[in-house]
Design brief:
InterPro entries: AlgH-like. The protein is of the alpha+beta class. It has 5 helices and 10 strands; from the N terminus they run ββββαββββαβαβαα. Strand 7 (100-102) and strand 8 form a beta hairpin.
C-alpha cells in the first residue's frame, strides 16, 4: 500500500552527502544539491567534484558565446543522468523563463539564456555550473535513505557558493557537527 509522505520529509533545498564507503563509485564523497523532491521522484545536482579539463569558457564556446568578464569557473560533475545536459545552480537575484525556485534558497536554470546573462555580466551574482544530474523515481530515494549511504544536511548557501568543490563534502559534515573520519563504511551485525 502506498503511504503519502509528509511534505517535511522532502529534501528540496537541502544537500545529500555520500557516506564513507558509498557503494557506487560515481558518488564517492558526493555533495548533491537537491533541487526537486516530491512523491514523484527527486532531482539533484552534484557539486562535490569537477570535470578535469573543462571550464565555463569551454561551455560558452560550444554555444558561440563570448565569455566577456565571466570567470572560467570549473564545471561540476552533476551526476550520471544526461551527462551532456547543463545546469546552473544560482542565487535568487536572477531568473530566466525556465528558472526554478528551490525552496527559496537558490534557483536552477538549464537554458542557454542563463549562460548568456552570466557572460554579459547581467546574470546571477553567484552561480555554479554542472553537467548531468542525479535522479530518482518516486519512492526510490526514500528507499536509499532507509539504508546507510546518504546523509542529508540543511541547504547552506555558503556551502553552495563560497566553498570549493574539493572542500564541500568535509565542510558540509562539519557544519552538521559530524567528523566524517569517524564514520565507518559498514554497519554492524548482531
Amino acid at each position: 500500500m502506498f503511504q503519502r509522505m509528509d511534505k517535511t520529509a522532502f529534501l528540496s533545498g537541502q544537500f545529500l552527502l555520500a557516506m564513507p564507503g558509498m557503494s557506487d563509485p560515481r558518488f564517492a564523497r558526493a555533495v548533491i544539491a537537491m533541487c526537486s523532491h516530491d512523491e514523484n521522484g527527486a532531482i539533484g545536482i552534484g557539486l562535490g567534484a569537477t570535470i578535469d579539463g573543462l571550464g565555463f569558457h569551454d561551455l560558452l564556446e560550444q554555444f558561440g558565446i563570448e565569455p566577456g568578464d565571466a570567470p572560467n569557473a570549473p564545471v561540476h560533475f552533476g551526476g550520471p543522468v544526461e551527462p551532456r545536459r547543463g545546469f546552473v545552480v544560482h542565487s535568487s537575484d536572477w531568473g530566466g523563463q525556465d528558472s526554478v525556485d528551490v525552496a527559496g534558497r537558490w534557483k536552477l536554470s538549464s537554458t542557454v539564456d542563463v549562460l548568456r546573462a552570466i557572460a554579459e555580466g547581467r546574470g546571477p551574482s553567484q552561480w555554479v555550473v554542472a553537467l548531468g544530474y542525479a535522479g530518482w523515481d518516486g519512492g526510490q530515494l526514500e528507499g536509499e535513505l532507509s539504508r546507510p549511504g546518504w546523509f542529508n544536511v540543511a541547504g547552506d548557501t555558503g556551502l553552495l557558493f563560497d566553498t570549493g568543490a574539493e572542500d564541500r563534502w568535509t565542510y558540509a559534515f562539519a557544519q552538521a557537527g559530524v567528523d566524517p573520519r569517524l564514520l565507518v563504511a559498514e554497519t554492524g551485525r548482531a
